[in-house]
Amino acid sequence: MSDEADLSRRHFLTVATSIVGGIGVVLTAVPFVASFRPSARAQAMGGPVEVDISKLEDGAMMRVVWRGLPVWILRRTQDMLGRLAAEPDAQLKDPGSAQSDQPDYARNPARAMKPEILVVVGVCTHLGCAPIERFDVAPADLGPDWKGGFYCPCHGSRFDLAGRVMNGSPAPTNLAIPPYRFVGDNVVIVGDDTGVKA
């Protein structure tokens, strides 16, 4: 009887030790495996950013951060699109965006996939300052020819409602357009244009 009890006790101890050891291995492996995932900071620095634009009203702009850069998403009104279309090419340094950083699908007068939605990097191409939105028409400080757009207060660069740089501005090129794509009508993925055709 003592041999059977001894064998049973050994079997119990072997099973219990195996279970505790297995749990220990799992608890040790979880942080190790989790360390392979990029940190939140690393994801923010390079990963695509999903933006819900369902509540973005006509004429309003929202800001997100992608790769440490401010990205603006502007829902242009029909009036804004009309003013943009009326902008004479002669007033722009690069009206066709031949010298600008942008995907091919944004190489059009609206510089966008959908004319009403502008997605643009909010960094002046002169010295990296942050332009401000100036959607008002013909304000006293910008002159009677101003049809709305973005103004850089650092050195006076002016950009139209498509982020195209105006003549007389120190900025050499248009504001950059990041890669992006739409998921349905209300979600923009900034930083990923997989499957988008030019």
Describe this structure in words.
With 198 residues, this protein is an alpha+beta fold. The chain has two domains: 1-37; 42-190, Rieske Iron-sulfur Protein (3-layer Sandwich). 24% of the residues lie in helices and 19% in strands. Strands 1-9-8 form a three-stranded antiparallel beta sheet, with no helix packed on it. The longest helix is centred in the first third of the chain and has 33 residues, at 2-34. The model has no long low-confidence stretch (mean pLDDT 87).
Oligomer: single chain
Helix content: 10-25%
Largest sheet: 3 strands, antiparallel
- Tally of structural domains: 2
Name given to the CATH architecture of the largest domain: 3-layer Sandwich
Q: Unreliable stretches, pLDDT < 50, 5 or more residues?
A: none
The CATH fourth-level homologous superfamily of the largest domain = Rieske [2Fe-2S] iron-sulphur domain
What letter string, H or E per element, gives the SSE order? HHEEEHEEEEEE
What is the CATH fold-level name of the largest domain?
Rieske Iron-sulfur Protein
Please count the helical segments.
Answer: 3
Which features characterize this protein?
198 residues, Rieske Iron-sulfur Protein, 2 domains, three-stranded antiparallel β-sheet, rod-shaped
What is the topological layout?
Blueprint: H1 2-34, H2 40-46, E1 49-52, E2 61-66, E3 69-75, H3 78-85, E4 117-121, E5 132-134, E6 149-151, E7 158-159, E8 180-183, E9 187-190
Antiparallel strand pairs: 1-9, 2-3, 3-4, 5-6, 6-7, 8-9
